[in-house]
From TrEMBL, chain A:
PANTHER family: ABC TRANSPORTER ATP-BINDING PROTEIN, BRANCHED-CHAIN AMINO ACID TRANSPORT SYSTEM PERMEASE PROTEIN LIVH. The keyword GTP-binding does not apply. GO terms for biological process: amino acid transport. GO terms for cellular component: plasma membrane. Keywords: Amino-acid transport, Cell membrane, Membrane, Transmembrane, Transmembrane helix, Transport. The chain crosses the membrane at residues 12-31, 38-57, 63-84, 96-114, 141-161, 190-213, 219-236, 243-264, 276-295. It is a multi-pass membrane protein. It is found in: Cell membrane. Its main location: membrane. InterPro entries: ABC_transp_permease, BCAA_transport_permease. This is Branched-chain amino acid ABC transporter permease. GO terms for molecular function: transmembrane transporter activity.
Automatic annotation (TrEMBL), chain B:
It comes from Thalassococcus profundi. InterPro entries: AAA+_ATPase, ABC_AA/LPS_Transport, ABC_transporter-like_ATP-bd, BCA_ABC_TP_C, P-loop_NTPase. GO terms for molecular function: ATP binding; ATP hydrolysis activity. It comes from the Bacteria. Coiled coil: none annotated. This is ABC transporter ATP-binding protein.
UniProtKB/TrEMBL annotation, chain C:
It is a multi-pass membrane protein. The keyword Cell membrane applies. GO terms for molecular function: branched-chain amino acid transmembrane transporter activity. Pfam families: BPD_transp_2. The chain crosses the membrane at residues 21-39, 45-66, 78-97, 103-120, 127-150, 175-195, 216-242, 262-286, 298-317. The lineage of its organism: Bacteria, Pseudomonadati, Pseudomonadota, Alphaproteobacteria, Rhodobacterales. This is Branched-chain amino acid ABC transporter permease.
Length: 305, 251, 331
């Protein structure tokens, strides 16, 4: 039981780290530009497809990862330049429609380019296999590597936001947009940088999960909405909130599915417990969101409601 | 006739203290003017009194009833209405519709889903009366977004009047209005004296001294003087802090 | 912050209102002529598809009530379609096949869901509101996916035909079509009344300037919540029709893509016009069918169309028509 708990907790943290990578860019885009971007999940999917392609061509996960990054930058810049840039000043409704159109387009384009059957990405040799944790407990090295890589990126982001000039502008922009333009900063460039940064992080998340998940067109969808929940819970514009929100959502989502029924068995008979547990598990994160929003409409670290 | 009592009101935006321990006694039926330089915190004070902004501490009392924690709509229903310094109307509604909504807010339920509202005589008649009092009845059917600046100021007044207020908070009703328009506006306000309690914020000193029963001077969020217009005009602290240069200009 | 919608002010000039009612009436007449036409062409497929169009027209109009008149961009409206469809499935598994009861059940569930989720979502604005309604819609989606008694992911086929007060509805003679058309007309009249009532004026006022509304004594929340509930309930009626039309229900009716498509229909037809979204539903579905017939990759073009429409024609299809001179610009 304890072992199961630790395993699931680690799985939860791994999912949380990935969610954070996706949510970080999204929350900055929301917070600084006040733009809603439904196409953010698409970027996650594109990251996975890019690494699948590059890894297949070069025969190496590492080359794939390395080539994926500049490609992700290019994708981010192109989307920013062609679409997002024209949406900043528009109503949220327009932003919803245009980025919804992007989602539909991108899903179809991916199907046309890569086909409908899922792709897989081979795990790099040094990261395959498992390590013993405690007693008989084993955990895959790759998943640990994902957690470490994610935390490293989170740390880098934290340093960037808190100790660099761009970070200072980002923080200022998230709370008060007019200050940033008053500082004489080229707001268009700042937006392009933020959007592209977010795009690269989302692509990176997609690339990192590619070896453990099958790469298919639906993968961006479920993640997108979980990411929204993360951003809403954490508070729009807050990196710290995104980090805690991501861990919270992921752990609740992972543990709830496994331990919900077990806990329910205390109050219900076993078959009812597993029945109710199975129905409640996928709804848990949304219930969590509802509860948090009821107490704090602006999220845990949000400055604006 | 209802009065307004303010005790030790405070409000800060971050490190900036905008309302600093303000106490104010507005007697029933009087016109109490609040003057002060730009950025003194006058609009902030009005927003706190009307409930648009929550106060950090202190109390607001309307006709003997503590309304400090009451949200804006509740205060309006108790008879405390405000006008906005920067015109805030419903741009896609006609002037009449803007005012009729204010009438509707106090007359019967708004949870009526079937009867067409545009032909409700009770609403439209009361709205027309308020428009006439504000001098805008001839423009009743014009969309608010098409009105001129001076007309917007009158629409602000008409909307506030239509809520049937006992205490009226007017935030620079004359801002940007000049000449005959301003004189007519002052005459209008004078007609409300005795019928309504009014708190008037105004930069136009002529208007203030023509209308006010009492004047309070707000500087950096603090009331530095309060009293009859003549006393305030001659108060050395006020002259030094405020009137000295400002009045010289106006004269 | 307030949504800056591109919608023309609603309920203003009486002439424009009359124009919209006329436009809607024309649409209704066209709809009524469809079945005889299909019969003449001996192609009952058109009646089947037509019923679907009408159902979505109801849903789009309901969404317009809050999106257009209340500036509430709900991205979770497909959930209410879902409640309607599952009301049909669940009642039918208990041997109840009457349309009126199906509608009542759908409305009851929707009202409850809208009350709870609306009360939470409406404490927020802007992008928060959009994302939260989206998340709640997804919550409902997952609930029905895990509802294994009704097929979960795979859905649930209806074995018995529905009836209305004893009359069989789901034959191929167009009975369901005409019932749906009657519902659409009735609900249009209802919505039209609502937006021109005291309540509607308050709702539109809040859209235009919430602070001003508070300053004259209205607390926006209760009016917005009421509108949100009404809209959800009407949408569920569309869901009831869809289940009966397809004789099948599945969580696919409530995916977030469906919510997006509902918004597309509203915007295509013109936000805040009621009659517009009815036409918008027909236009969007025709576009889907039409592009689908042209290419298996029609979604690429549909997505592209949306992006281009937003970038180049901010006022939706109405704006597009005006731009190209197909329709006279109205003041
Ligand atoms: N929401 C806010 N956030 C931060 N600071 C604010 C806010 N509202 C007002 N202030 C600041 O508070 C001070 C007082 O503003 P306020 O608008 O109350 O002044 P005022 O006396 O009405 O000025 P004016 O005569 O120009 O209308 C100003 O320095 C202003 O910048
Ligand atoms: Mg002011």
């Amino acid at each position: 039981m304890m072992n199961l708990f630790i395993l699931q907790l680690l799985n939860g943290v791994q999912l949380g780290v990935l969610l954070f990578l996706i949510a970080a860019g999204l929350t900055l885009v929301f917070g600084i530009m006040d733009v809603i971007n439904l196409a953010h999940g698409v970027l996650y999917m594109v990251g996975a497809y890019l690494i699948a392609t590059f890894a297949a061509v070069t025969g190496s996960f590492w080359w794939g990862l390395l080539l994926m990054l500049p490609a992700a930058v290019a994708v981010g810049l192109v989307i920013e330049f062609l679409v997002m840039r024209r949406l900043y000043a528009r109503s949220h409704l327009d932003q919803v429609l245009a980025t919804f159109g992007l989602v539909i387009m991108a899903n179809e384009a991916v199907k046309m380019i890569w086909g409908t059957s899922p792709l897989s990405v081979p795990m790099p040799d040094i990261l395959s296999g498992s390590v013993p944790l405690m007693g008989p407990l084993q955990y895959p090295v790759y998943r640990i590597a994902v957690i470490v890589a994610g935390l490293a990126v989170a740390l880098g982001l934290f340093v960037m936001v808190n100790y660099t000039r761009v970070g200072m502008l980002l923080r200022a922009g998230a709370t008060n947009r007019s200050t940033v333009s008053a500082l004489g900063v080229d707001i268009n460039r700042l937006f392009a940088i933020v959007f592209t940064l977010g795009a690269v992080l989302a692509c990176l998340a997609g690339a990192l999960v590619a070896p453990v998940l099958s790469v298919d067109t639906g993968m961006g969808e479920s993640v997108l909405i979980l990411t929204f929940v993360v951003v809403v819970i954490g508070g729009i514009g807050s990196i710290k909130g995104a980090f805690l929100g991501a861990l919270l959502v992921a752990v609740v989502d992972t543990l709830g599915g496994v331990f919900g029924p077990i806990l329910l068995r205390e109050v219900l008979d076993p078959s009812a417990a597993s029945q109710v547990g199975r129905m409640l598990a996928p709804m848990l994160v949304y219930i969590l969101m509802a509860v948090i929003l009821f107490a704090k409409p602006a999220g845990l670290f949000g400055s604006r409601a | 006739m209802t009065g307004l009592t303010v005790r030790n009101l405070n409000k800060s935006f971050g490190a900036l203290k905008v309302t600093d321990d303000v106490s104010l006694e507005v007697a029933p039926g009087e016109l109490h003017a609040i003057i002060g330089p730009n950025g003194a915190g006058k609009t902030t004070l009005i927003s706190q009194l009307s409930g648009q902004l929550a106060s950090d501490s202190g109390t607001v009392n309307l006709g003997g009833r503590d309304i400090t924690r009451m949200p804006m709509p509740g205060r309006v229903r108790l008879g405390l209405a405000r006008s906005f310094q920067i015109t805030s109307v419903l741009p896609g509604f006609t002037a009449l519709e803007n005012v009729a909504l204010a009438v509707q807010a106090r007359k019967g339920s708004s949870f009526r889903f079937f009867a067409p509202v545009a032909t409700e005589a009770a609403l439209n008649d009361a709205a027309m009366r308020a428009l006439a009092e504000a001098g805008l009845d001839d423009r009743a059917h014009v969309l608010a977004r098409s009105l001129s600046h001076g007309e917007h100021r009158r629409l602000e007044l008409a909307i506030a009047l239509a809520t049937d207020p006992k205490v009226l908070l007017l935030d620079e009703p004359l801002a940007g209005v000049g000449g005959e328009d301003a004189d007519a506006f002052v005459d209008r306000l004078r007609r409300f004296k005795g019928r309504l309690t009014m708190v008037l914020i105004e930069h136009d000193m002529d208007a203030v001294f023509k209308l006010a029963d009492r004047v309070s001077v707000l500087v950096y969020g603090q009331i530095i003087a309060s009293g009859a217009p003549e006393d305030v005009r001659n108060d050395p602290a006020v002259r030094a802090a405020y009137l000295g240069d400002e009045h010289g200009e106006a004269a | 912050m307030t949504e800056t919608l591109t919608a023309p002010a609603a309920g203003r000039a009486p002439r424009r209102i009359a124009g919209r009612v006329k436009a809607a009436a024309c649409l209704f007449v066209l709809f009524a002529l469809m079945p005889p036409l299909a019969a003449a062409l001996d192609d009952p497929f058109w009646i089947l598809i037509g019923t679907r169009f009408l159902a979505y027209a109801i849903a789009a109009m309901a969404l317009d009530l809050i999106l257009g008149y209340g500036a509430m961009v709900s991205f979770g409206h497909a959930a209410y379609l879902g409640f309607g469809t599952y009301a049909v499935a669940i009642l039918s598994s208990y041997g109840i096949h009457d349309l009126s009861l199906q509608i009542l059940a759908g409305i009851a569930v929707s009202a409850l869901f809208a009350l709870v989720t609306g009360a939470i979502s409406l404490r927020t604005r802007g992008v928060y509101f959009i994302m939260i309604t989206l998340a709640f819609g997804q919550m409902a989606f997952f609930f029905f996916i895990s509802l294994s008694a009704y097929g979960g992911d795979d859905g649930y086929g209806l074995t018995q035909r529905s009836s209305l007060f004893g009359f069989d509805l789901t034959g191929r003679d167009g009975a369901l079509y005409y019932v749906t058309l009657a519902l659409l007309i009735g609900l249009f009249a209802l919505c039209h009344r609502i937006v021109n009532s005291r309540f509607g004026r308050v709702l539109t006022g809040i859209r235009e300037n919430p602070v001003r509304m508070e300053a004259v004594g209205f607390a926006p929340f209760r009016y917005q919540l009421t509108a949100f509930i009404i809209s959800g309930c009407i949408t569920s009626i569309a869901g009831v029709i869809l289940a009966n039309q397809a004789q099948f229900v599945s969580p696919a009716f409530m995916s977030w893509h469906r919510s997006g498509e509902l918004i597309v229909m509203v915007v295509l037809g013109g936000v805040g016009t009621l009659a517009g979204p009815i036409a918008g539903a027909v236009a969007a579905l025709t576009l889907e069918e039409g592009l689908g017939a042209l290419s298996e990759h029609w979604k690429l073009f549909f997505g592209l169309f949306l992006v281009l429409m937003v970038l180049f024609s901010p006022r939706g299809l109405t704006g597009l028509l005006e731009k190209t001179g197909l329709m006279r610009g109205k003041s």
